[in-house]
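new request in #modeling-help
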Amino acid sequence: MDSLCIRTRGLAKRFGVRTAVDGLDLEVGRGQTFGFLGPNGSGKSTTIRMLLGLIGPTAGEAFILGHCVRRERLQALARVGALVETPAFYQFLTARENVRLFGRLSAEITEEQIVSALRAVGLEERMDDRVRTFSHGMKQRLGLACALVADPELVILDEPTNGLDPEGVKEVRDLIRSLAESRGMTVFLSSHLLHEVEQVCTHVAVISRGRLQAAGPVSELVRSRRPGVEFEVDRPDAALEVFRRLLRPDSLSVEGRRVRVSVDESEIPGLNRALVNSRINVSAIERRRQTLEDFYLDVMHREGAVH
Amino acid sequence: MSFAGLVRMEAWKMMRRGRSYIGPAGLLAIVLPTAIGLRYGPMGSEVERYVGSSVTMIGSPLNALFIARVVLPPTVFLFLPLFVSIVAGDQISGEAADGTLRSLLSRPVHRLRLLGAKYLVSVLYAVGLTVFLGVSAFAVGYAFFGIGGLISFGGGIAYFGVAEGMERLALGYALAGAYQICVCSVAFLLSVFMHSSLAPVGVTFALMLVMGAVGEIPYFERLKPFFFTTYGDLFLQAFRVPLDPERLLRGVAALAAWTGAAFGLASIVFSRKDILS
């Protein structure tokens, strides 16, 4: 059995002259909760559509659970549940009927499974109401129920918390976590919410302009970045000038009176001395925990996607 | 999911959709006033006078068979194509516009099987609607006038006894159904290209109008046999005396060719289509 749930080799998609995905090599292991990150228009949704066979690649191949999506689409998707962008339903059917209809396209499912999926996303009370009466957040939950009802091995979720209130975001986060922990599912999650991804994902990949920029376990990627230190100063612009002479520009940022730098611990006294020598008053030096957001922004700065 | 399962699913969806009932309701809205107008208005006695001036007839020409015959022309050329294309033209384009096509094809569903199921259900709807027209017109006519032989106009007046009249009507409705299947296939093909459920209806009608108009221009006479609209009046052949089997077969073959070509092209396009909506 292939130990990888998702594997892509040189996956590419061009729309006319525009390249949406450019030679993507991606590997997602079984049991991982995998975050797929990137700015708008970076190729995330196009990649997900290619994984699901909704669009055909211009070059390369995608494999799901060992099956080539192009040649063996039905086998590849047999154990996959997916929520692609804004979930769409038959408005004239009830929530239960929608889950039954979409679930039965994947497998034979029982009424108990349908009710259980709707209960898991908090829609049990409204399951016999027509979807046209649902809010955006409720539709998002219903999309999750449709993705999960056939008990898939791999769940592909494209922005699953879009349109949810903070409570809903937390519930979905807990649900995603439980999918991997208690049901042993592999989750492939595309999201803009870096904080959410950091809390639920074991692995991430960052994509920009259709190319893979970084991939690996979250803990390793965050650790790989030099620790952050914040200097609280009276003249942040002047402090920034001083640091620019000593450090790489992409390791600097300013927020109010705080200048943030990414440096090794041994460099802190030297930087402090440089500030004092330039008659800049330092009122605090604070070590900052590195987050996935720091890592992501670093990658994007390097790529020139964020200024 | 098996093909039969997909057909059941699509048929169930169609039955749950409000727009599927526009057709039967619209047809009843034509049949009932026609019968009422003939029964209680001056139209009925005018028909009797017109028939009486041409042939000697004992009793009234107005009956169930006559009503079933008289509602055919307006419905075959206008109302049936409209109601059929509303449903067939929505099959892919409507789902693409709503985003449900994306949800369907994210599942392990064979694209051509899904397309085939949608097409079959659309064709069954077109046939069902034609049959509904015939049955409802006959039933309403029977309730208002009872039964009798069939007087048919068009290329002279023809009279058929009850049994032959029923046979001729069945043939006329079968030919009308064949034309509706062809219209359904064209609307279905357009549905594969479009992302709005109403656009295929408009384009189907535009095509019918253009083909109809171009076919009437003498310069384009040679193109006329290649237009499907040329065979819209094929049902009239069912009431000719004697029947012209060669003309009938030629018309049915042309409609079948259009139907096959439309579905074939739809299959090729749909199997390769990128689902971007």
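bot summary: The mean pLDDT of chain A is 87.
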